[in-house]
């Protein structure tokens, strides 16, 4: 059955572009809305995503009749209550491979659907306009930044510590070597046994920063092992990733109410300030956002913070209604 949103139809081709990072921002937003609108949509997407890594691995599928395999796949899962996207006559190139792999791993799909049906309903944690902290059944502590959502299944959580995240959250995971803690992100899986780390998802990238312990991150064929004070940034558009040392702790501002910058690009500080104080601060020249700033703010109002930023970076403030624009001083 077709799922419509903003006059667009979600079909296999759209999902394939979303998974491979080839969809535009408007189309990506449509897919995210579709995923959030119905649990059956999310279940279908999870299956689609789970086997896409096989398709990207180069398994030979030229000999397979994609049309016949697709019909077989639909027949196999039709009874599971999954709402399938609309089928188009022609395939996206990578979708052809994905469709073939669906049949090759039909046993995996059947197991997944059966497990999903038996696991019970999911619980949604929605932070909305305020930071939200949740103590999980195993004692793990999760802090969601504003505008973030986390899903998990209470009935099976103690046997399978599995959650899904959209937005930003800090995880302090209770140690359990027998049952790893797994976070599902679009196209990425994060797995730990007991550690603390921050995950931040934006439109074009996902950033994972480890505070204590160790974290494993998987995206397609890429695998990263992160230790304390390390981070990896996964870019959506070109499917690249950068692993590096994390120099500051600005990422913790929404938990600690403390802004700590050590050579941090000023645009990142501005994003944190806007999120915390519900302000509309921007830079007149976006290139100025790369300017590094080293400051620490704690217990300060926004009217106390802005003059310090301007003094440090030789900027001036111009107010336009509810917006504050920062620009370079004349002659600089």
From TrEMBL:
Domain FecR protein, first and last residues per copy: 136-216
Keyword Transmembrane set for record: yes
Pfam families, per database record: FecR, FecR_C
Keywords: Membrane, Transmembrane, Transmembrane helix
Origin: domain of life: Bacteria
Start and end residues of each Protein FecR C-terminal domain: 258-326
InterPro entries on file: FecR, FecR_C, Ferrdict_sens_TM
GO-annotated molecular function: sigma factor antagonist activity
Ranges annotated as spanning the membrane: 95-114
PANTHER family: PERIPLASMIC SIGNAL SENSOR AND SIGMA FACTOR ACTIVATOR FECR-RELATED, PROTEIN FECR
The protein's name in its UniProt record: FecR family protein
Protein species of origin: Deminuibacter soli
């Amino acid at each position: 059955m077709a799922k419509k949103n903003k006059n667009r139809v979600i079909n296999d081709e759209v999902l394939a572009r979303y998974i491979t990072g080839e969809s535009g921002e408007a189309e990506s937003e449509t897919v995210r809305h579709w995923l959030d609108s119905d649990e059956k949509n999310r279940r279908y997407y999870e299956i689609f995503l789970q086997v896409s890594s096989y398709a990207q691995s180069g398994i030979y599928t030229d000999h397979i009749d994609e049309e016949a395999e697709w019909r077989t796949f639909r027949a196999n899962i039709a009874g599971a209550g999954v709402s399938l996207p609309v089928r188009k006559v022609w395939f996206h190139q990578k979708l052809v491979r994905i469709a073939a792999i669906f049949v090759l791993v039909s046993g995996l799909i059947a197991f997944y659907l059966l497990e999903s049906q038996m696991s019970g309903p999911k619980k949604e944690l929605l932070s909305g306009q305020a930071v939200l902290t949740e103590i999980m059944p195993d004692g793990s502590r999760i802090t969601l930044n504003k505008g973030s959502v986390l899903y998990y299944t209470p009935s099976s959580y103690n046997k399978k510590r599995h959650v899904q995240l959209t937005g930003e959250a800090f995880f302090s995971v209770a140690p359990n070597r027998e049952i790893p803690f797994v976070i599902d992100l679009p196209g990425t899986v994060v797995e730990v046994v007991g550690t603390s780390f921050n995950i931040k998802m934006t439109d074009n990238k996902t950033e994972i920063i480890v505070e204590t312990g160790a974290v494993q991150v998987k995206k397609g064929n890429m695998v990263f092992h992160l230790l304390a004070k390390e981070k990896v940034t996964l870019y959506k558009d070109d499917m690249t990733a950068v692993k590096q040392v994390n120099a500051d702790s600005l990422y913790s501002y929404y938990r600690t109410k403390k802004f700590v910058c050590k050579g941090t690009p000023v645009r990142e500080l501005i994003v944190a300030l806007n999120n915390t104080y519900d302000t509309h601060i921007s830079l007149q020249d976006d290139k100025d956002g790369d300017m590094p700033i080293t400051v620490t703010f704690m217990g300060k109002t926004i009217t106390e913070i802005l003059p310090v930023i301007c003094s440090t970076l030789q900027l001036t403030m111009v107010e336009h209604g509810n917006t504050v624009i920062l620009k370079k001083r004349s002659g600089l």
